[in-house]
Amino acid sequence: xxxxxxxxxxxxxxxxxxxxxxxxxxxxxxxxxxxxxxxxxxxxxxxxxxxxxxxxxxxxxxxxxxxxxxxxxxxxxxxxxxxxxxxxxxxxxxxxxxxxxxxxxxxxxxxxxxxxxxxxxxxxxxxxxxxxxxxxxxxxxxxxxxxxxxxxxxxxxxxxxxxxxxxxxxxxxxxxxxxxxxxxxxxxxxxxxxxxxxxxxxxxxxxxxxxxxxxxxxxxxxxxxxxxxxxxxxxxxxxxxxxxxxxxxxxxxxxxxxxxxxxxxxxxxxxxxxxxxxxxxxxxxxxxxxxxxxxxxxxxxxxxxxxxxxxxxxxxxxxxxxxxxxxxxxxxx
Amino acid sequence: xxxxxxxxxxxxxxxxxxxxxxxxxxxxxxxxxxxxxxxxxxxxxxxxxxxxxxxxxxxxxxxxxxxxxxxxxxxxxxxxxxxxxxxxxxxxxxxxxxxxxxxxxxxxxxxxxxxxxxxxxxxxxxxxxxxx
Lengths: 333, 132
Description:
B: 132 residues
């Protein structure tokens, strides 16, 4: 059997779509016993969000700080523990696709969403993605180990430290180097003439149980997402139920403005964001909800400095979708 | 755990959704490597670079004339390995090790994407990116 290799390029924005939903508390445990059968195809972001809310972890008690707000503090991540095994003889196995039960059809996700670009910027995006090999282009700023920007950074793993006057997010990242943000919750406003930066300037306030964060002063050196949309990680395009959705090169201007919503339900952290860019977009882009789960007491933030070593080896597509390659040339005689 | 209840099932199923997010990486392996060109090489492990976006291993391999050449091998992000219980300490510097990898498409010699490390004592570290 032919090996399948595909690791989507930092496409964390890929299947995040267009709808922002109020995070209603699920009807407690009643759902959890009845909805054990999950749909194989998640048709919409509403359905995705409902699915997230069914997670028993979301129905646990929500920890709160002494001032009554949900306590966002903690290490939040996507649990990857089931990707690795180790036997008594010291053999170690890591399988990135190991979490999926391959006897079942792959679950499909809502279409990835893209901002609605003005024609001149849509053309620019198109030009970039045409230079991609599969989901990969070294035009993606992540190849230079730059911070992922907002909202691309908020996919975990990350550590949140919450105090009454600020919420600090320490990003571990699986792709770029570690970085941090300070979200001021002491009532201050954005600076009048701020310098732009990769992660911008953030001020937050509580609306009920949701921390609403306003982010400005973002530079234009990050992308909102890259790679390509897909319905099933771990498969090559055209194989199995893999569906290429669209190649992504989500550029933005330094007029980007983001409103983020962080909501803790039990031991699940929900993330929603709306991105405005009056220069490049025709309308605000609402990112599909994401979620992270609280790590166990022994999970710790991990050092992840970034050293780019692969950029020079990334190939580009040609007319024949072939490439210069010494190893894979057919023998000439 | 032998006992299973709907909560377990649901948790497992929702965990799949969670996993779908980080099951993305810096780039497609096929944008740099050719899965059809697998090779095996034996040498002495000299260095493990446990960094984003890819872990790198370096091996001193002696050619036919006895001259040592450095080979390097790419892997997944260290955070993914770490959370899966695969640790930097699983590789021992100075030990002889046989690496199975797939070759770089751009023709760079002595570069591969690591699939398996086999130690002299017989134990191995297998790294899969899923699907194979």
